[in-house]
Amino acid sequence: MKKIIIAIDGPAGSGKSTTAKIAAERLGYVYIDTGAMYRAVTLAWLRAKKELTEDILCKMLDGIHIELKPSENGQRTILNGEDVSDEIRTIEVTKNVSPVSAIGCVREKLVEMQRELGKNGAVVMDGRDIGTIVFPNAELKIFLIASAETRAQRRTLELKNKGIEESIEEIKKQIIERDRYDSSREISPLRKAYDAIEIDTSNLTIEGQVEKVVELALEKINLQ
Ligand code: DC
């Protein structure tokens, strides 16, 4: 089977990671969650208890080694040898990840890693700038959207399943704030690539989203 690159971008809670993970499994492709990489850098910075300045972050980067390891239940994120897959999902990391991911040297380092990871194709990569910056020549680009209400409901449930209680109003506020930050930053803001296919997942089931992506992917693969 032809090994294409599938870029899935969109705002927080639009269904990217769930869709990308299952679609990758069905296609026999590798799933790469780039948000986890920005979250790992954010965790390293939080642990260092330093101020958030470009200078400090750029100096810290040499000591931050991130590995992504495929596992049965998706990707594991390893920070300097430690599995931080759960810790990078805490509310504290989520609250701080947007400003950290807006810093130029952080983006440069992680984009370079992402290009290396995807260079041989057969990947489904999700993020904010995969179709615009990381792989502007990706064979298939999907842009997922959903209403803020739906996205907040999904995130609240996701956290609840992990034993974290947070009100839907608070989550919705954080999502809107993160959208604003991610879309308005100077370097590689969240936006739809001109050649991306937009899918509104507000009224779709997970299976419905996956089916659409797999169908589009197979069309592209068969064309190659
Ligand atoms: O997908 P996520 O919620 O785990 O992403 C966390 C943050 O990382 C998100 O608010 C913006 C940033 N991000 C980014 O700037 N570029 C990417 N390719 C992926 C994530």
Overall description:
It is a single chain. The protein is an alpha/beta fold and about 220 residues long. It has one domain: Rossmann fold (3-Layer(aba) Sandwich), CATH 3.40.50.300. It has helices at about 15-25, 35-50, 55-60, 90-100, 105-120, 130-135, 150-160, 170-185, 205-224, and strands spanning about 5-10, 30-35, 65-70, 75-80, 80-85, 125, 140-145, 195-200. It has a 5-stranded parallel β-sheet with strand order 2-6-1-7-8, sandwiched between helices. The longest helix is centred in the last third of the chain and has 18 residues, at about 205-224. The model has no long low-confidence stretch (mean pLDDT about 95). 2'-deoxycytidine-5'-monophosphate binds near residues 12, 34, 38, 98 and 130.
Task: Summarize the model shown.
With 224 residues, the chain is α/β, with parallel strands linked by helices. The protein has helices spanning 16-27, 34-48, 54-60, 91-101, 104-118, 130-134, 148-161, 168-184, 206-223, and strands spanning 5-9, 30-33, 66-71, 74-79, 82-83, 123-127, 140-145, 197-200.
Give a quick set of tags describing it.
single chain, about 220 residues, alpha/beta, Rossmann fold, three-stranded antiparallel beta sheet, 8 strands, about 50% helix, binds 2'-deoxycytidine-5'-monophosphate
